[in-house]
Amino acid sequence: MSAQRIALVPGDGIGPEVTAQAVKACDAAARRFGIDLVWEDYELGADYWRITGQVVPPDVEQELAKADAILFGAVGDPSVPPGVLERGLVIHLRTAFDQYVNLRPVKLLPGVPTPIGGLRPEQCDLVILRENTEGAYVGAGGFVHRGGPDEIATQESVNTRKGVERLIRHGFRLALGRRKHVTLVHKANILTYAGDLWQRTFEEVAAEYPDIEVDYVHVDAMCLYLVTQPERFDVVVTDNLFGDIITDLGAAVQGGLGLAASGNLNPTGSAPSMFEPVHGSAPDIAGRGWANPAGSILSAALMLEHLGHPEAARCLEDGVKAVLPRLGAMRGPEMGMSTEDFGDAVAAVIGE
Amino acid sequence: MSAQRIALVPGDGIGPEVTAQAVKACDAAARRFGIDLVWEDYELGADYWRITGQVVPPDVEQELAKADAILFGAVGDPSVPPGVLERGLVIHLRTAFDQYVNLRPVKLLPGVPTPIGGLRPEQCDLVILRENTEGAYVGAGGFVHRGGPDEIATQESVNTRKGVERLIRHGFRLALGRRKHVTLVHKANILTYAGDLWQRTFEEVAAEYPDIEVDYVHVDAMCLYLVTQPERFDVVVTDNLFGDIITDLGAAVQGGLGLAASGNLNPTGSAPSMFEPVHGSAPDIAGRGWANPAGSILSAALMLEHLGHPEAARCLEDGVKAVLPRLGAMRGPEMGMSTEDFGDAVAAVIGE
Ligand SMILES: CC(C)[C@H](C(=O)O)[C@@H](O)C(=O)O
Ligand SMILES: CC(C)[C@H](C(=O)O)[C@@H](O)C(=O)O
To answer: Isopropylmalate dehydrogenase-like domain: from which residue to which, for each copy (chains A, B) (predicted)?
Structure first.
């Protein structure tokens, strides 16, 4: 197999610290399995924006487009107006590279403390597939009489049959290799147009998979069930905004944002997929070695899987699973191990 | 004080069972404090719809409009297409009676088991104010090429300055009598139109209340914090859909949907306010005495408060607080006490 080119976008805050550990872990696995990974750094983020006035210039985007995958850290800094980097970089690349599946596992790993009393790892192992290119994220909307007493602000969710169907199909295919259960999460009793399209499409695709069990759960009830009965779920398909909301809750349930991984997948391969921890740039703890790189390393594992290296991916996961129980806390000085030490320990396990 | 007329809409499933206990508790408090409450029953819900083809006929709506308050149970039955009763009754009355504040306390009561490990009652005492008449609940949207491969379904959230401002103002007024902290929950980095209106309005109102501390939290982060740090919050203001989602999560945190109360308030008094437990009709356990009436009784407490009887309201709360710790579980046969016994026990405490 020829070399695989990975574009590295460490970004701001704790982004560089955690991605450095993910690179370390990938390199350890690459050595072990004879995989040829080539890393190319892109210094995008707050500094780049302040200096150049651009978030992702077209030539950089063209280079990124040629990578086999993108490993992303986090963006966001108090010096940049909120939303600029998130929309200009994260949301922009998800859309520009047609990464229509945002895959977010919610898995409680053994030895990780969860806020949910008595929850056991075998009760919490689901995958949330969030539609990643449309819905309320399209930026459609407007103002009437802005700033006056009669102001109206509208915000539109736009859902296409194609967009909804391809996400749902991905969910059913994924469920075939898992516990064969797919749940649609929406708010169809209120969002009657968008919900109707989602429900109809879901039922039509489900009819092609008679062996897969399906159900429907309203997004409000989903929040309740994620906390009280996560074992109800195997594969969950949902829209962009609901997916954003329930995956943060899922991260809480599985022990914290620091542990949550994600892949922005373009399953057609027409452009690279992008892998990123669910957490943000956490400027409050940046540069102190207090960030947990597990989310980044687990995202890199999803990347290796996507690049055709399932054994290497498994090794990264096993490394994280071996090291996490040694931590005193999942974040901060109480971790009892620096970000870098965590990465070294994972790399050591992988090398064994 | 002359008699206060309360329209009782027990509805479907467990609705009648739980509201009967709320009526019992109110009557006990009314006797104790010399309050004159007159109950008028309205048999709306699934049966009514099946027989008449109408959800709320105009003449019934006119009668309801004359009540001093409405005590609502729950609607929904497998025999009725999903959404018909919810939209035709609950959502319709919230809007028709301009009940623009949906007040939902999230309070962990002593002795109630919460799924959140180690959470103590003093860490969980917030009030979520959900805008209740607009946002994504207005039913705006449509289809293009419905049913075909090029179908597009749109769903619009409509937010007015007036609607947003009156909800936010209610939150600031409420915070004055509490811990003087108001949090805005939205997704302003993505929903840039609606979010901008909410943030601008929030900041303008906040400027009039220099003694009140404010902050802003994205809805996804809110889900995480509600589970891990509910003590961060005092009064939370948010839009209709986000409020729907985070209050179900809040209900989970405080021990279950069966315990969660709500008031749909029309603070101007131009039409009656409506009080309802956050739970649904739970047809699976209807008629067995397994429903927890706490949510309904606590909603009735909010009603008594709204009707100008704060001591009576306190008594209902104290009754629920006294009886809840005697339960073996918060719902189902394991409760160890029937729905009716729970109501009798609360009434007995109130009568003491
Ligand atoms: C940073 C933000 C724009 C982003 C989102 O809303 O998708 C984040 O919350 C996420 O979940 O990846
Ligand atoms: C029944 C349903 C329409 C309703 C809502 O979405 O508002 C319910 O979930 C609630 O929270 O009161």
So the answer is: 5-346
pLDDT tens string B89-100: 999 999 999 999
- How confident is the model over A239-254, as a mean pLDDT? 98
Cα–Cα distance list, B314 to B9, B274, B309 (Å)? 23, 19, 9
CA separation for the pair B257, B330 (Å, rounded)? 9
Chain A residues with beta carbon closer than 8 angstroms to that of B257: 224
Q: Determine the angle formed by the axes of helices A15-33 and A339-351, rounding to 10 degrees.
A: 10
Structure tokens at B208: 């009039």
Instruction: Give the separation between CA B153 and CA A198, rounded to whole angstroms.
Output: 9
Q: Is A1-102+255-352 CATH 3.40.50.800?
A: no
Q: Do B194 and A117 touch (CB under 8 A)?
A: no
Q: Which ligand is nearest to the CA of B72?
A: 2
Ligand 1 atom with the shortest distance to the CA of A91: 3
CB contact under 8 A, B87 and A190: yes
Query: Which residue is it, tokens 């001591």?
Result: B311
* CATH of span B1-102+259-352: 3.40.718.10
Cα separation values, B60 from A17, A59, B10, B52, B273, Å: 64, 66, 15, 13, 16
Evaluate whether B224 touches A247 at the Cβ level (below 8 Å): no
CATH architecture of the domain with residue range A115-253? 3-Layer(aba) Sandwich (3.40)
For B114, other C-beta atoms within 10 Å of its C-beta total: 24
Q: What is the mean pLDDT of residues A158-170?
A: 98
Domain boundaries, chain B: 1-102+259-352, 115-253
Q: Is-same-fold flag (A1-102+255-352; A115-253)?
A: yes
Encoded tokens for A112? 């990780």
Residue A13 backbone class (left: φ over 0; alpha: ψ -120 to 50; beta: rest): left
* Residue B293 CA: distances (Å) to CA of A188, B212, B331: 28, 35, 9
In the predicted model, what is the mean pLDDT of residues A171-188? 98
Give CA–CA dist B62/B85, Å, rounded.
18
Q: Supply the pTM of this predicted model.
A: 0.97
Ligand 2 atom 3, closest CA: B86
| Dihedral (CA of A211, A217, A219, A221) sign | negative
Ligand showing the shortest atom-to-Cα distance for residue A243 = 1
